[in-house]
Amino acid sequence: MERRGQGRIVAESYAPGAVVSEVARRHGISLQHLFVWRKTARAGCSACRPTRRHSSFRW
Q: Which of 8, 10, 24, 42 is deepest in the core (most CB within 10 A)?
């Protein structure tokens, strides 16, 4: 999966009311992958910034 796609999924997982396991399941990825992507995003991955759709997302 390309990094922009990963970034959108990470942003979705941080949206208010989101359940991380449901986000992972909806996108057909393992929960562990999503947690690694979230950790990478918190560390400053520029390709993993939130999109306008999830503008309430904060780092």
A: 10
Instruction: Enter the pTM of the model.
Output: 0.69
Q: Return d(Cα 6, Cα 29) in angstroms, integer.
A: 10
What is the tens place of the pLDDT at every residue in 12-28?
A: 999 999 999 999 999 99
Give burial (CB, 10 Å; 0-12/13-18/19+) of 17.
Answer: exposed
**Number of residues that make up the chain:** 59
> Which residue type occupies 42?
R
Q: How do residues 41-50 score in pLDDT, each as one tens digit?
A: 888 855 555 5
